[in-house]
Write a structure and sequence with these properties.
Length: 304
């Protein structure tokens, strides 16, 4: 008797959820981007490419370039901090406590954490008071309302999203491989670069995607701690929806942000694909990390 396939039934709730809360809103945004703006806001059922033509304006292009630069810088700094942090937690004997300290900020509201940074970086904030107390400055330094403040706060906000996947990947890594590399003459730096990083590539890719995508569409942080030179695409979209009520332009910018983030993610994933085991072994042999016999044995076992 043939058994029934209940797979589609099991997947139905997930499919409905994605359709209602992802595909349908995305379809509405796509449709709005090709409609004309209403006289008093909103849209009218008239096909128009005016919103897409506006994307080529110098102002929007400069904001898009600024958004991309800020996102790349903030993501790079986040990963550079998260890598040693994840490694330290993975090698620690007190992992639960360290993970607890990483997760604690999630217990606080997003805006509360932003305003905490405002109280730290403000003209009368903790940092300026400390610098005045030790005699480094006489008048307050403007730490807020610039791109540096935006990058600092974005790094803080999304650092846990990078640390957790990196820790999860590093924790599964066989650290005896690092000891073997050191025994074969590799320095600490070489062992980390040639042995550790290639084996935790999946965690690095996940950490980059988990930080770059939300940072690229950030709205609240640039609005609260950034200045006029820190406006990002998320702020433009919000202004078009709430102030000028130009929904087609807001939709076209949203689609541009989505496409840029998707293409960037796909390009990063494509560039980080692991080579075949044979190529890895041959590369290791060329670099003198393993001998020919070891390379042949590893190739037979499919070791990468």
């Amino acid at each position: 008797m043939r058994q029934r396939n209940f797979g589609p039934i099991y997947a139905l709730p997930q499919g409905l959820w994605l359709t209602v809360f992802f595909a349908a809103p995305l379809g509405i945004i796509v449709a709005y981007s090709f409609l004309a703006k209403g006289l008093y806001g909103g849209v009218v059922p008239q096909f128009s490419l005016a919103a897409w033509h506006t994307l080529g304006s110098p102002i929007l292009l400069s904001v898009a370039l600024r958004t991309l630069i800020v996102s790349i810088v903030a993501t790079a700094i986040t990963i550079l901090i998260a890598l040693p942090a994840g490694y330290s937690i993975a090698r620690s004997r007190n992992q639960p406590m360290r993970l607890f300290l990483i997760i604690v900020p999630f217990w606080t509201n997003f805006l509360v954490r932003v305003y905490a940074w405002i109280s730290i970086l403000g003209a009368e904030g903790f940092l300026n008071d400390l610098l005045r107390a030790i005699g480094i400055i006489d008048s307050p330094v403007q730490f807020l309302y610039n791109q540096t403040a935006v990058v600092v706060v974005l790094v803080y906000m999304y650092l846990p999203y990078a640390i957790l996947p990196l820790f999860s990947t590093i924790d599964k890594f066989d650290f005896t491989l690092l000891e073997a590399a050191r025994d074969l003459g590799a320095s600490k730096f070489d062992a980390i670069v040639r042995v550790l990083l290639p084996n935790i590539k999946g965690g690095i890719v996940t950490a980059v995607l988990f930080t770059f995508i939300p940072i690229f569409g950030a709205y609240a942080v640039p609005l609260l701690v950034g200045g006029k030179d820190s406006y990002m695409l998320g702020n433009i979209i919000a202004d078009q929806v709430t102030k000028t009520r130009n929904w087609p332009l807001a939709s076209s910018i949203s689609m541009a942000v989505t496409l840029i983030a998707a293409l960037g993610s796909l390009a990063f994933l494509w560039g980080s694909r692991r080579p075949s085991p044979a190529l890895v072994v041959d590369s290791a042999e060329d670099q003198g990390l393993v001998g020919p016999d070891t390379a042949n044995a590893g190739s037979r076992r499919g070791i990468s």
